[in-house]
Structures are given as C-alpha cells and as structure tokens.
C-alpha cells in the first residue's frame, strides 16, 4: 500500500497562522487594530484547542479581516519567508513524494498554493478553503459548501476522497487530531516546531518537534542524518540569553542549568559553559555522547583538554573574553554539528569546510598514527565509493578526516569505518 502524508499549513508548513498575518497587513492603519488582532488570535487558538467549532472560528476571523486581493499578494510574499525551517530544508522529500505529499488545511488556497507549489506539491493535492470576493476584489466571505469550512472538515474531506493507502497526519491543531480520532489515518504526529498545544500533544501518537523528526522515525529520505531536537544541548552557569536563543533557533533540545547535573552526563551532546564553571575529569570521561564543548572564557584549568581530545570532543573557548563571545562560541558549536567545521577550535585541527550539496559527509576522528588514512580509503575502495571530496588535517595526536561521498552506498560500510583501529569518533551528516 502507498503511504500518503497529510500535512497542515498554518503553524505547521509555515511558522505562522496566515489569517492572523493577513489581519496585520489589512488592518495596519486601522485605529483599533490591536484589539482586532487579539480577537482574531483568540478565534484561532480557541478552535485549535477544540473549544469552539472551526466554522465559528473561521467566520469570525474572515468577518474581522477587512482584506482584499492586494493584501493577499503581500501576505504570500510574507509567507514565503516564513516556511518552517525543517520543511524548507527537506525539499528533496517533497520532490520524491510529489504524488503522495498533500496539504490539507482550513486555510485558503489563494495564499497556500503559491507558497507550497515551489516545494513540488501539486495543485491538485492542495485541499483548502476559497475566498469569495466582490467586484472590487474585497474579501466578503468564503465557499461554505467546502467541507473544510465546517467543523470536522478534514475528516469529511478524507471520507469523500476514500484514499487507498496508509495515511500519516502531521499538524498542530485539534482538527488534525480529529483525523486520528476518526480512524481514517494510520498515525497522527503533533508538530511542535512553532507551537505546542497541550490539548493536541496529549493525544498524539508521536510528538514531532521538527519535520526531520517525522522523517527520521519513519525512515524516510531527509536532509539531516539525525534530528537536532534529539541532541541535548546543556547550558550551565552564567550563559547570556543570546546564546540560548542561537542554539534553540538551530533546533537543539536546550536545557539551562546552574550545574552540570549527573543525570545529563550520559546523554549530553553539546555543552556550553559560563565563565568559571568547571567539569571534573571523571564526569567528562563518562560523557560518551558529548561532541563539542563551548566555554565563555578561558578553558585552562576548568576542563581537561587531554580528555576532550581522547574522546573526540571539539572545544571552542574564548580566552580573550571578546565582547561577542556569547554569540561567537555557540555558532562555532552549531557549525561543527551542522557542517563539520572545526575552525577556531582549541584542541582540534582547524578546518572550514564547503557546504554540503547532494552528498553525505563522513567525519572520522582518530588517533594520528601512520597508515590510518590508508585503512579508511581501503574501506571506501572495497565498497566502490565515489569520493566527491576529502579533507584531512592533524593536530598533535588527533587526526580529522572528512569525506564527502554520493548518497548511494551499503550501510554496512559505516560499521567498517567505525571498527577501524584507533578510531575515536565517527559521525555522518546528510545534506
């Protein structure tokens, strides 16, 4: 059976609620705009939480808009810049699933279609409401015969379509959960990259903080090898808010703590420490998932660089206490996770890599001993791998080999690379 992917638009495919944004455009010069904005937002939230009917919410919002076709054109331009980050980086998924990735929304085709069609979503696979206009192009209502304008509209639509296949629903609102409740879909994934509604997440089969997470758990083609929302980023001590913002915006699962609590030791992937914070050697040695440490100050005497190097942990610090260290250090950490860059590292060879395009990047951290590159390349040769580019740098006892290869290969090759003697850490990046 084919898999079909039923995807919501507002606060799912895009970061925002489109009608709320349209109101901000159409009512920009209205004297009571703030009051009306709030009324429209309230209608949205009450419906998304299942507290009022969708039709009541839709009628209330459209009546308050005072919008026309010119406003819609401005809205489309705005929405194209507000596509959710994890959807935007996974265009390739939509290209490969153009027949079965559908948009089903209580929003309106007039603004949905121009936003989603650049992502290879076919117009005939976009199901949404349509506006009614007067002769001057003003919005005066909507097609009330469209099932999506009514309460339980998504359920009614799927009942009419009678799709022959396994259906997965992705959305943030109550109307998306109703599909699961109806028994029409296989699983419902509550999408929380932009907003998390407890009334929805409590009932979901799976909470997906990003589209990467959805693709990962269903073993579908995706842009990145491991969802960043699954990577624990621990911030300890006096860490400015800008650093928290940078790492959260990049999609990591961020925890802010006063101390490096023992319960996080085995799971932490990134560790950003405020100036003066120390980590004892024993705890550091047990942090097996830790990939990078950022230190907002001079790391000397606070953390063992020797243990970090032995475990393949890339360290970034700021011993000169520059004014922008709170932005610079977390960005270096993110660049290492996202692209493999080690530029400005304290303990690793410094390497700035080209951006990945249509390739997989294999990062092999190893002890700098004779013959190890020969072993690595022997594995590639035995597996008939077409190498696009390869980079090698060493620093003291550490070797850092980065190889970009085409995406078609036997996954058993990855095990072979990990098993090479003197390997410290191995990681793969998709792009």
Automatic annotation (TrEMBL):
Q: Which GO terms describe its molecular function?
A: L-phosphoserine phosphatase activity; magnesium ion binding
Organism whose genome encodes this protein: Sphingobacterium wenxiniae
| Associated pathway | Amino-acid biosynthesis; L-serine biosynthesis; L-serine from 3-phospho-D-glycerate: step 3/3
Q: Which GO terms describe its cellular component?
A: cytoplasm
GO BP terms in the entry: L-serine biosynthetic process
- The molecule here is called phosphoserine phosphatase
On the tree of life, the source organism's domain of life is Bacteria
PROSITE patterns in the record, alphabetically? ACT
**Alphabetized NCBIfam families for the sequence:** HAD-SF-IB
Q: Which cofactor does it need?
A: Mg(2+)
Top-level class of the enzyme under EC nomenclature: hydrolase
Keyword terms: Amino-acid biosynthesis, Hydrolase, Magnesium, Metal-binding, Serine biosynthesis
Q: Which residues form the ACT domain?
A: 361-431
Q: What is its EC number?
A: 3.1.3.3
Q: Catalytic activity, per the record? A: O-phospho-D-serine + H2O = D-serine + phosphate; O-phospho-L-serine + H2O = L-serine + phosphate
In terms of InterPro entries, this protein maps to:
ACT-like_dom_sf, ACT_dom, AHAS_small-like_ACT, HAD-like_SerB, HAD-like_sf, HAD_sf
């Amino acid at each position: 059976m084919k898999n079909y992917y039923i995807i919501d638009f507002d606060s799912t495919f895009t970061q925002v609620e489109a009608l709320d944004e349209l109101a901000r455009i159409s009512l920009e010069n209205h004297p009571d705009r703030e009051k009306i904005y709030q009324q429209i937002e309230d209608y949205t939230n009450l419906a998304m939480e299942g507290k009022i009917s969708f039709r009541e919410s839709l009628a209330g919002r459209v009546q308050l808009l005072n919008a026309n076709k010119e406003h819609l054109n401005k809205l489309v331009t705005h929405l194209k810049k507000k596509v959710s980050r994890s959807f935007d980086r996974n265009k390739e998924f939509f290209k490969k699933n153009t027949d079965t990735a559908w948009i089903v929304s209580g929003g309106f085709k007039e603004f949905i279609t121009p936003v989603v069609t650049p992502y290879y979503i076919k117009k005939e696979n976009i199901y949404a409401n349509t506006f009614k206009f007067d002769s001057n192009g003003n919005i005066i209502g909507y097609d009330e015969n469209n099932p999506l304008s009514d309460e339980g509209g998504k359920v009614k639509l799927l009942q009419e379509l009678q799709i022959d296949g396994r259906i997965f629903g992705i959305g943030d609102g109550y109307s998306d959960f109703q599909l699961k409740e109806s028994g029409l879909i296989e699983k419902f994934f509550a999408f929380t990259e932009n907003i998390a509604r407890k009334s929805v997440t409590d009932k979901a089969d799976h909470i997906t903080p990003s589209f990467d997470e959805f693709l990962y758990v269903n073993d579908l083609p995706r842009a990145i090898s491991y969802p960043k929302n699954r990577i624990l980023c621990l911030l300890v001590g006096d860490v400015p808010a800008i650093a928290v913002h940078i790492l959260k915006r990049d999609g990591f699962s961020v925890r802010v703590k006063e101390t490096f609590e023992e319960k996080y030791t085995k799971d932490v992937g990134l560790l950003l420490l405020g100036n003066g914070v120390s980590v004892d050697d024993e705890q550091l040695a047990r942090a097996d998932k830790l990939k990078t440490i950022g230190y907002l100050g001079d790391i000397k005497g606070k953390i063992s660089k020797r243990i970090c190097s032995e475990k393949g942990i890339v360290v970034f610090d700021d011993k000169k206490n520059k004014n922008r260290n709170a932005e610079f250090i977390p960005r270096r950490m993110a660049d290492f996770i996202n692209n493999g860059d080690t530029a400005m590292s304290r303990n690793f060879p410094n390497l700035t890599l080209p951006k990945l395009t249509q390739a997989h990047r294999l990062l092999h951290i190893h002890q700098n001993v004779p013959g190890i590159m020969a072993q690595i390349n022997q594995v590639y040769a035995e597996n008939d791998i077409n190498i696009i580019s390869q980079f090698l740098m060493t620093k003291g006892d550490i070797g850092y080999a980065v190889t970009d290869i085409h995406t078609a290969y036997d996954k058993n090759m990855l095990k072979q690379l990990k098993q090479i003697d003197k390997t410290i850490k191995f990681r793969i990046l998709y792009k």
